[in-house]
What does this fold into?
Amino acid sequence: MNLSSRAAAICAFALALATGSGPVTAQSKPEDGLALGRKMLAEDNPGDLWVERGQRLFTAKRGPKNASLEKCDLGMGPGVVKGAFAQLPRYFADTDKVQDLESRLLTCMVELQGFKREDIIRTRFGTLDRDSDMEALVSYVGAASNGLRMNVRLTHAKEREMYKAGEYAFYRRSGPLDFACVTCHGESGKRIRLQDLPNMTKAEEMREVVATGWPAYRGTHSTVRTMQHRLYDCFWQMRLPDLGFASDLSVALTAYLNYSANGGEIKLPGVRR
Amino acid sequence: MKGVSQFMSRAAASVVGLAGLVIAGCAAFPDAETTAKNTEQMVTDAHTLGAPALIRRSVQDTSQRACSMIGGSEGSAKLSQEQAASLVKTARDSIQYPASGKLSGDWKTGAQLVTDGRGQRIVNGQVEKLPGNGALCTNCHAMDPTEVNAGDVGPSLVAYGKQRGNSEAVARYTYERIYNAWAFMPCSNMPRLGTNGFLTPEQIAHVVAYLIDAGSPVNRQ
It folds into this structure.
């Protein structure tokens, strides 16, 4: 799509968001309006533009090594994107690490294309002035699993180690606000202000959240955000220090959460506030 | 016979032991101690930006560690009676009061604080620059019944003062509960806003006034 169709899609999003969070009457709960807004958005998801751009970036010869990502092994064999999201994070023998989608793409962009790791990390989150290649690539790879079900396995010892680390981190309270993930995500049907909070200790809610969640087009950010950004944002709200991109801690939390979503039918990118 | 049966049971035990080893090698999760050690290292490695004082925010104090049990949250926190008593004592001992001695301040200043969700957030190793932290209350609590934009992770505080009055005892209880909720309910989801230095004693007193003053929107309806 060209720039004007992108602008139109974003306007449609803004309109739906405004409609969804408009005046709330005594008869309707505020979340009903928000749910309606999200439903309207899902029918015309601006995130599809990031999927298209991600596909172009994946197949284009880029970087100092003038190579595409068609030899990038995301766990399904070189260049195979279908089904990759469904089984991540997983263990990769070449790096001897458990990696999520973002950290694996980072490895491929450095090893295959010759990009500098610090450059990819510096531009990992898009701004209004600069699109992020990472956000586009994650959108493309995520959408390539649409219709499949989450199927994260814990067959390698390091995968089990990461899963348990993620569980430990989920319940670990720290910082000036004493928060752990479970503080806000341990009960169903709760909100921070008007924002619904998924209960991440309930598999049925996790299947929905993970399989239709991140990557997701965020209206208030006018871009697609990835799971790494979602976690970074949570740490920021918890008043903790910056969560390192592709850090083991971030991958551990994703391994724990994605595993609990096994069976969820993938529909990406999602749409969020 | 005794010797034989001893041999048999030893053999059986070693078969069980071998099976245990095989399971441990193939499919077992690491034990709790290993997981704790691994994850604490990951926490250290995950945070590299900012001054040491900011990085240290991710280090737990004793009370936070006690309130981090896996599978727990405030409702299901499985504390022994001793642990609970110790957490309550630590919390109670930490409570300090405003120099003025006034535990209920100005509700209008409180009104500004309760809806302010900002303060102390870190981006690229830098803390957001503000004259003071917001009190974050409406992130989780309904307070003014006409305000829609309020969360419900914590209980509604609508008509808080109307129900309890504004006596010195109510002011003191409310002040202490905000200063350190764990003095009343160990491992509560509510942050220890005073003890952690997130709010000053004077700010807390303003929030107390907002909750108990008869003129406050909390108690008007």
Remarks:
- Chain B has two domains: 1-30, 81-219.
- Strands of chain B lie at 122-123, 126-127.
